[in-house]
Every structure is written in structure tokens, then in C-alpha cells.
Amino acid sequence: MQSALFHPTMISDPNNPADSTITVLGIPYDLNSSFLRGSALAPERIRQGLFSESANMWTENGIDLGSVSEWKIVNDLDLSQSATAFEDIELAVGELLAKASRVISLGGDHSVTYPVLRAYAEKYSELSILQLDAHPDLYDQLDGNRYSHACPFARIMEEDLAIRLVQVGIRTMTGHQRQQAQRFGVEVIEMGDLNKVDSLAFSGPVYLSLDMDCLDPAFAPGVSHYEPGGLSAREVLTIIQGLKGELVGADIVEYNPERDPQGITSMVAAKLLKEILGRMLAQNPSNN
Length: 288
Ligand code: MN
Ligand code: MN
Description:
alpha/beta; Arginase, Chain A
């Protein structure tokens, strides 16, 4: 299936409506992880899961990802110059958005969502974010690092990169982060209140930031921070598939292959990627 990795680009096809293509972009960066490194290895392993001979390429809503040409995978970003990593991420995502492609980014720790959202905010002035995560990631700083993977949503809200942030699956709220959530007007649906997801609806464009540790470690053990009491794989799929709003981009972060010797979590991440793709492709008029 290696040949399926690179689909011909449809970005410049004048017959395609704007923003009808999707680019899957690897962001191999984990230098802002506070506890363990490893999530930089995620993009390659998620792609291996996606193209594994053990599964097919059909989404649950009936799209054969192996035959549609409205999405493509591009090479991982080269972030070897770590001093400029955030600038490089923002620039690359901005270039894709300028070409009328939506972006699904893979891998890295959750700090990468901040530069990705800086690019998104340039294009979408009324963006909402749905964050699935065990952690609020609202620390003002952690261990002296304001760009830690524990801080991206504080930076995002400080810079008004989104008009609305909804967090689902939270189960590690601290006093400081509860204050931060109030300060920024974050809507937090903690795990104990999960049924509130049913009435969640967005108007306008929505960006999905999917931290793999939103899942219970029983479903996704390949993460750096085990936080029991989380979402099932099916619950995450139901949220993605049932999302009320227009999904314009997504990231899948915090998958750590070094804690995934059996490859279970790579298949979970690949499944979530498939269903995000299926969801976004179904929004295209040509697939309805
Ligand atoms: Mn996170
Ligand atoms: Mn997390």
C-alpha cells in the first residue's frame, strides 16, 4: 500500500471548491514535553497504522480513503533547527491554508498546537476549538517553560487565536488551571460530566485538537501521561462523527510510540485519523 501514501494533489484544480482538499502533515517535535520524550516518533507510526495490511482504508461513513484523491500525505516537517521550530510550523501550516487545503497534523507533543493555531487564526477569525484531553494544558508556565506542552491553550487564549475553547475529557484540573479556565472563558466538560457533550454545538469553523491521553490508558497505553478514567475509543469516535459544526482542521498529539511496543495505540491513532478524514471529506459537496 506504500503507493497510496502520496495522492496527486488537487489543490490547484479549479473545479474543486475552495478548501476541499486535506493535507496530513507530520510534526515530529517533542522538545516541550515535561515528562517523557517520544512523541516526535508518532507521525511515522500513525501512518504505518493507517496503511497496515491488517485493516482496510474505509471510513465508517463509507468513504474509501484509498481511492479518493481529495486528501494527501506530505513529508514530515524538518524541525532539526529546534530554535525556529514554532516559526517553521506556523509557516508551513500557513502555506497549506493559503493554498486552500485544510490540515490534519500528526504527532509531536501538545505544544505544537500553539503555532498551528497561530496559522489558523490568520485565516479564520471566528475559530472555535474542541480540545479532547485528560489535561487542560492551561498552565501559565511549567518548570519555567511558557511553551511547555502543559501551556499551549494559555498562549492560544492570550492571543485571542480562537473565539471559543471547549475542553472535553478533563480529569486533572488544578486550582491554578481552574482560575485560568475562568480567566479565558474556557468551557470545560470534565470526564464526570461527559453527558454534557450531547448538547455541544458549534457555529462557524471548528478546529479539533486531539490529545491521545483523552482516551483511557486501557484503550491507548502509548502515551506519556497515563491518566485513568478516560474516554473509550468509541466515545471519541462518536464525538468526532457527531460533532455539530464544520471541522476545518485537526491535530492528533501526544502519541508516544516508545510506550507502544505492541502497536495498539498506533492503530487507535490511525483509526481516529481515518474518522477525522471521513468526517471532513463528507463535508465536501462532491462526496454527498
Ligand atoms: Mn494535551
Ligand atoms: Mn493530555
